Inverse folding.
């Protein structure tokens, strides 16, 4: 048997907030791809499962100086220090894990027993708990994607960077006798869906991938970097107040308006 | 032997020890844990072979190329089709949620006949033969003395299905074929009056580098949304500029380089103010203005009333800002001015369209790279005129019920917005039978209450809807269409595209229910009516009709999904066929009204004392507000500052909220009333809305559809009435006076 | 050293209890044996229900007729996914008409081929929904034999009884025929530990931060 010797990858995302229109196509692409359930009332956003949630930021200024910006928030797939993401460190069930090979934080629903420590630990609110069993209206279960398992009541779920697409791309590569994937072979559903081309996805370690250069943009930032979560999702915004909002104003606070996040 | 406590305990201990030596406890623990991980009621999606079927989305006039992923015979996801003109590889949020419409529990699964009262929801399933003969029977009876009393309502008049319905009405003897109005009608009229051509407006936005938008939701669904998103991103990449003129900080305004919050209703004045500066500073395109336009002097004279100072007073925008903006616009190499509020679902003021279009003319960006093009209507439908019998001949001569084409509104083809008022004010409804296809007038027309009242006066309503929408609920007979992914349909040029394009929507899977293509249903009705009507439909079925109509394009359409016509920028030479043969800044059609200023603005309905605030609507990509109701995925993405529980949330400026007689905190409930209606709302304090105004999202407040949509929020159309545009007769209302009162406890 | 008094007292106390120390041991043994019997013999019978395949199938016979071994029927699609149990379309080429004398063959043609119905085969190695198993990674990537996990099924002349776990709903072959979970061959069990065992041995994807072993998102979805 051959051993796999592929260079460690670090999949990550760069989201251009100047291009993001807040249309929500990424959210629906994500829900359709990942069998995310829906309830009759989803207006309580605390229990509304959205692996990718588009937040609306406002600069807090009065009319007509008010400004808004949308910020799509998938799981940040934090690397922390050597893969010790906040959620991975606290999971008592080994249900969430960090892989050094892909840099992806996994969540195994059947392993999870619903203690929700990870949700408390995640500074990005990227994790969601299934308070109810998912229910599809009669006939609508037909559109479930077989590549992603359906979750049950009592477990935590979150964005997987569409890991099943990585698995599928690897299968095709094996079939064709390859080990390595091309950049376009593995793309998340949201990246593929974004009509504005605001999301770029790829291997942050690979100089041939677009994200490698984009993450070095002078306007690039990550959310709450100070916490040392070392997230793999970068944002770009030419607007200073947006970049400041990304770090909650706690360091280097400058008065450019009070920032609040819409829930 | 006596079994006492000790021996029993011994037995139990022995049993326990023995059990521990068997696999039972370990195996049982393992199995039970697996059982709890995989509840039998959690669905397990069936795996299978993956395939992709390309088609064209018909959920809105944008007509994007889609690629549907199937697992065996299930459709599991919709993605964009790479290479399709405009949308190239992407679909919008609604397009991607389309499978929830296909598999929706609110599909009409078989022909239905109403058995209870109108709107009561009591139906009897009937066979297709019975349904067709019932409809044909009713129509046949009516034809004897009142053939023009049959009306048809469609979404858009383009494409074979609406044209088949129009043909049915013509052969039957009725002129009353009506379309759901939109900004496309206003643009078509603008081109007719200023260019003298019958065409639709195409925007070469990809080649523009300065986009001046008069309230158009460039990134909120205006034009063809996916294409506009791409153009917006490209504009940013090439450091182009976008300026948004709008009273509310919409997404487009927030993403624009400059947001100009004019007082709503004064957009026309603002456009004329810009024109004033451009002419005054002599920044206009001399070649175009001198050689290809007429009435420039009259236009210039009229503009005297629109100096920056005056315009500043009316619009609330600083005079200097107006001058700077006008200079920047005229100074750009490819400036483009567009209008049509929000997604362009309402036609708006024709004067506003003409004023904005005059800006394009001033900078010579008409029929040129990066400008507005007059795009000829698709010409593939070349059916011979039907032979009309006596009844039909007489019938089509009758005046239209909606007044379109009358002396008052000679240029407009269809005025659906006037129909409810016409019916309500008549003793007997001029419409005795109504056929509705691809439209949901009971939801989408302004003043829903009046529309419902009008529908009550129509004795016979037939719906062709595949979904149980508001209009279908109110019908007498439903002849359900296939869902859009189950049928063939031609897709004419996407709205706003500058080159003619024909797309073909193909069935992605076999029909799930006992439904029939509306094209087939129309042909069947025609055949059942016999005589000349039947003879006007020589096709065996719709597919034959469609393939014959498309002729030599058919094979390419089936293969590639679209046929793009080689079409270059039309240029100026011979492009204008107005009475003067030139581009007309001031059309005679408008000038004819002597008692009105040539460019008028629309004031909102209601008196200021009773209704101190003004309510305006806004459009969102996450809320479908056409004839399609929101699928559950879309509603899930709606923010809680738009919908909270079942309450719609209206935006109000914190300063305005503070002025009220009672305290209005963020999220507080209130009653919102306008001269047309009253609804319960919650308020959201937003700095992005002009003080004195309130904004409400369109697309909520459905009474039909499932529990994921019905009863959520309020329908903006319940609160607003139509305002007839003096030139076009189309609806030009952009807002209505309103007030907020305390919620009665 | 004990005195006779002591002995007497002890004996008395035993007699005062249940008459004989033998009884206690006897009951202990009865309990022990009964539980051993029920645990080893009765429990497996109760735990699994036996289901028959819709029709019988002779793997050995087919193996003689095809060129590419298992992959002739259990093939990979072009996207690298594994097609699994053959669909009717693949059988139809040869089985349009009844071949041979077997009653199963006749049923197959009459009930399925002519009616165009897929055969509802029961799949012995069906994994839970949370498992992502890539056949192509093992067969093409690692060059493994089908038999390593599936055993010599290609040599079988008929299908064995399908035993379904009444609690989990899964096939008995996942846990293995041996109720104690002991395996002699690599193909005797298909539990996660069996996958992990081989992955650890071969150092496949040992990239987990939590365990230092295989990362979860290698075999799970």
């Amino acid at each position: 048997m051959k051993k796999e010797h592929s260079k460690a990858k670090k999949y990550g995302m760069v989201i251009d907030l100047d291009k993001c229109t807040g249309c929500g196509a990424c959210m629906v692409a994500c829900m359709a791809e990942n069998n995310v359930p829906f309830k009759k009332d989803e207006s309580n956003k605390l229990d509304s499962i959205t692996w990718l949630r588009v937040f609306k930021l406002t600069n807090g200024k009065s009319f007509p100086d008010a400004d808004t910006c949308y910020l799509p928030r998938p799981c940040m797939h934090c690397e922390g220090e050597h893969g010790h993401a906040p959620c991975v460190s606290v999971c008592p069930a080994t249900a969430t894990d960090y892989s050094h090979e892909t840099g992806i934080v996994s969540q195994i629903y059947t392993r999870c027993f619903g203690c929700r420590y990870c949700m408390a630990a995640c500074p990005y609110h990227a994790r969601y708990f299934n308070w109810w069993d998912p229910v599809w209206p009669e006939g609508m279960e037909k559109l479930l994607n077989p590549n992603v398992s359906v979750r049950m009541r009592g477990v935590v779920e979150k964005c997987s960077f569409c890991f099943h697409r990585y698995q599928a791309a690897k299968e095709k590569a094996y079939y064709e006798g390859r080990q390595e994937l091309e950049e376009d072979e593995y793309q998340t559903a949201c990246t593929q869906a974004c009509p504005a081309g605001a999301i770029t996805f790829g291997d942050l370690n690979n100089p041939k991938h677009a994200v490698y250069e984009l993450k070095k943009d002078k306007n690039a930032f990550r959310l709450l970097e100070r916490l040392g979560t070392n997230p793999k999702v970068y944002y770009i915004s030419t607007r200073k107040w947006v970049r400041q909002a990304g770090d909650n104003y706690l360091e280097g606070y400058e008065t450019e308006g009070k920032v609040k996040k819409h829930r | 032997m006596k079994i006492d406590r000790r021996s029993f305990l011994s037995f139990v201990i022995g049993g326990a020890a023995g059990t521990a030596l068997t696999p039972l406890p370990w195996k049982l623990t393992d199995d039970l844990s697996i059982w709890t991980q995989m509840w039998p009621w959690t669905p397990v999606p069936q795996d299978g072979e993956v395939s992709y079927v390309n088609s064209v989305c018909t959920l809105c006039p944008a007509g994007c190329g889609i690629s549907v992923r199937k697992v065996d015979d299930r459709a599991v996801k919709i993605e964009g089709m790479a290479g399709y003109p405009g949308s190239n590889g992407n679909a919008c949020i609604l397009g991607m949620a389309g499978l929830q419409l296909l598999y929706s529990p609110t599909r009409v699964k078989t022909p239905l006949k109403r058995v209870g009262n109108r709107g009561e929801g009591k139906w009897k399933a009937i066979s297709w033969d019975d349904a067709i003969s019932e409809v044909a029977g009713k129509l046949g009876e009516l034809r004897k003395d009142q053939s023009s009393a049959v009306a048809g309502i469609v979404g858009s008049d383009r494409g074979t299905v609406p044209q088949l319905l129009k043909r049915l009405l013509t052969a039957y003897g009725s002129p009353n074929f009506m379309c759901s109005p939109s900004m496309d009608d206003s643009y078509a009229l603008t081109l007719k009056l200023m260019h003298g051509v019958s065409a639709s407006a195409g925007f070469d936005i990809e080649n523009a580098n300065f986009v001046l938008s008069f309230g158009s939701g460039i990134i909120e669904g205006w034009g063809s949304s996916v294409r506009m998103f791409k153009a917006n991103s490209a504009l940013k990449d090439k450091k182009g500029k976008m300026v948004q003129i709008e009273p509310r900080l919409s997404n487009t305004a927030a993403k624009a380089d400059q947001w100009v919050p004019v007082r709503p209703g004064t957009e026309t004045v603002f456009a004329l103010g810009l024109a004033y500066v451009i002419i005054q500073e002599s920044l206009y395109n001399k070649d175009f203005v001198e050689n290809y336009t007429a009435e420039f002097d009259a236009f210039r004279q009229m503009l005297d009333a629109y100096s920056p100072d005056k315009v500043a007073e009316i619009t609330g925008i600083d005079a200097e800002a107006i001058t700077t903006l006008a200079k920047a616009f005229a100074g750009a190499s490819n400036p483009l001015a567009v209008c049509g509020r929000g997604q362009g679902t309402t036609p708006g003021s024709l004067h506003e369209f003409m004023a904005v279009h005059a800006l394009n003319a001033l900078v010579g960006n008409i029929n040129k790279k990066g400008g507005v093009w007059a795009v000829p209507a698709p010409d593939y439908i070349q059916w011979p005129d039907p032979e009309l019998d006596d009844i039909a001949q007489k019938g089509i001569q009758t005046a239209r019920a909606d007044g379109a084409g009358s002396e008052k509104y000679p240029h407009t083809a269809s005025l659906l917005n006037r129909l409810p008022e016409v019916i309500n004010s008549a003793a007997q409804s001029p419409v005795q039978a109504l056929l509705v296809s691809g439209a949901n007038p009971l939801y989408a027309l302004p003043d829903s209450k009046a529309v419902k009242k009008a529908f009550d006066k129509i004795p016979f309503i037939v719906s062709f809807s595949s979904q149980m929408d508001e209009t279908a609920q109110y019908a007498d007979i439903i002849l359900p269409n296939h869902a859009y992914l189950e049928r063939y349909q031609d897709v004419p040029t996407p709205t706003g595209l500058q080159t003619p394009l024909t797309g073909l929507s193909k069935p992605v899977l076999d029909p799930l229910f006992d439904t029939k293509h509306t094209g087939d249903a129309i042909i069947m009705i025609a055949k059942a009516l016999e005589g000349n009507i039947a003879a006007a439909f020589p096709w065996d079925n719709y597919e034959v009709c469609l393939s014959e109509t498309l002729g030599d394009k058919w094979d390419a359409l089936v293969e590639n999904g679209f046929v793009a016509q080689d079409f270059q920028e039309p240029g100026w030479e011979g492009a204008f066929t107005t009475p003067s043969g030139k581009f007309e800044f001031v059309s005679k059609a408008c000038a004819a009204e002597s008692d009105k200023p040539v460019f008028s603005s629309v004031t909102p309905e209601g008196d200021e004392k009773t209704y101190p605030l003004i309510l305006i609507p806004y459009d969102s990509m996450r809320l479908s507000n056409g004839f399609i109701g929101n699928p559950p995925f879309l509603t899930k993405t709606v923010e809680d500052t738009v919908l909270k529980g079942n309450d719609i949330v209206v935006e109000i400026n914190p300063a305005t909220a503070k002025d009220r007689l009672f305290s209005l905190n963020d999220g507080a409930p209130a009653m919102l009333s306008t001269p047309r209606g009253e609804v319960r709302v919650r308020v959201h304090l937003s700095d992005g809305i002009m003080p004195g105004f309130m904004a409400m999202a369109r697309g909520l407040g459905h009474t039909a559809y499932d529990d994921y949509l019905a009863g959520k929020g309020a329908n903006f159309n319940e609160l607003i009435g139509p305002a007839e545009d003096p030139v076009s007769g189309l609806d030009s209302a952009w807002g209505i006076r309103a007030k907020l009162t305390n919620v009665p406890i | 050293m004990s005195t006779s008094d002591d002995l007497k007292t002890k004996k008395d106390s035993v007699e005062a209890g249940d008459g004989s120390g033998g009884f206690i041991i006897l009951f202990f043994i009865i309990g022990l044996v009964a539980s051993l019997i029920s645990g080893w013999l009765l429990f497996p019978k109760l735990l699994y229900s036996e289901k028959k395949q819709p029709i019988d199938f002779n793997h050995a016979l087919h193996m003689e007729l095809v060129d590419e071994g298992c992959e002739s029927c259990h093939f990979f699609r072009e996207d690298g996914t594994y097609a699994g149990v053959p669909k009717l379309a693949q059988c139809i080429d040869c089985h349009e008409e009844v071949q041979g004398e077997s009653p199963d063959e006749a049923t197959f043609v009459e009930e399925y081929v002519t009616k165009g119905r897929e055969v509802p085969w029961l799949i012995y190695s069906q994994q839970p929904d949370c498992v992502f198993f890539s056949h192509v990674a093992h067969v093409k990537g690692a060059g493994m034999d089908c038999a390593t996990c599936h055993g010599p099924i290609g040599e079988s002349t008929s299908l064995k009884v399908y035993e379904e776990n009444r609690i989990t709903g899964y096939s008995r072959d996942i846990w293995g025929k041996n109720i104690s979970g002991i395996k002699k061959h690599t193909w005797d069990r298909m539990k996660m530990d069996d996958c992990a065992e081989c992955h650890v041995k071969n150092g496949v994807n040992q990239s987990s931060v939590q365990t230092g072993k295989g990362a979860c998102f290698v075999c799970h979805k």
